[in-house]
Amino acid sequence: MSSQHFYHFSALPLSTRMVYSMTLLVLGVGYLFAMLQVFFSHAGLDGNKHDITAEDVRIAYHGSGSDTRLQTALKGPMADMLPASERALIFTWVDQGASREGYDKIVKPIVDNRCLACHDGASNPHLPKLTSYEEIAKVVVKDEGATIPTLVRVSHIHLFGITFIFFIVSSIFAHAYMKTLWLKCVLIVLPFLTILSDIFSWYLTKWFPGFAWFIIGSGVLMGISFTVQWVVSMWQMWFYTLPDKLQECGGALPILGGKSKIQDV
Ligand code: HEC
After folding, report:
1. Which positions ≥6 away from 123 have C-beta within 8 Å?
2. Mean pLDDT, to the nearest integer, of 154-167?
3. Are 115 and 131 spatial neighbours (Cβ–Cβ below 8 Å)?
4. Is residue 191 within 8 Å of residue 226, measured between CB atoms?
5. Residue 140: pLDDT above 90?
6. Residue 78's closest CA among 133, 142, 157, 139?
7. Alpha carbon distance 81, 79 (integer Å)
8. What pLDDT is attached to residue 107?
9. Whose CA is nearest to atom 8 of ligand 1?
10. Of ligand 1's atoms, which has the minimum distance to the CA of residue 150?
11. pLDDT score, position 48
12. What is the CB < 6 Å shell around ligand 1?
């Protein structure tokens, strides 16, 4: 086999390790915010806003069996846009058949006051317009989960964005030393596979609610890969000394058993 080399972090210049560390630091914070975003947009869909359950995920993609789109939104991402008392009035109005009289008397003043900043049709044309009875009636329909155009939009953002993130993190992690090479390879390949399985599971869940568990499983595996790569990289960059016999090669070791050719770094 040819002599291919792998450079351990300790063989890299200080400046490169600083670039890597700062990148990991900011991406780590980014991951935490991504988790918060997942929490805010899903928790509460099932009526309990303190945690995320499989039921939350199921409702987000497959839709709620009983609620309308308006109710699902007001239990989930829109929950903090109005006080609970006003939300209860809207729910009662929906449950009693969403009449035009009820809209004029009770719902319109609330919506005008709390929702039109964003849902006036002009400030964000992608959001449902809620300026009239006819408009709001369009979201008082059975909640069938995320629409295909929404899923497609989020899919392409995730496919590009997350691949980019794992390209960076895995390229850094590639400089880590692990005794078992296959484990290192698994840790590198896994997150990329979970991007695909996560996104395909969204579409599957839209039709078969049981696939919500695949979304959760993909997310958990993605999180584990990210965390392991992050921690091992940071640790080996600053605190770890390579075993003696590897250090002799200046942190460079032949991967495929070729003769080690020490190079200046
Ligand atoms: C600060 C801006 C803002 C305000 C105020 C706001 N919304 Fe929204 N609304 C959004 C955004 C952004 C989305 C898309 C979020 C998403 O899909 O997670 C959205 C989504 C929705 C949806 C989901 C539509 C669908 O496709 O099923 C409904 C229904 C909704 N809002 C109703 C309301 C109501 C009712 C109020 C007032 C109580 C309100 N919103 C206040 C920004 C706002």
Report:
1. 117
2. 96
3. no
4. yes
5. yes
6. 139
7. 6
8. 95
9. 78
10. 17
11. 80
12. 41, 69-70, 73-74, 77-78, 81-82, 111, 114-115, 117-119, 127-128, 130, 139
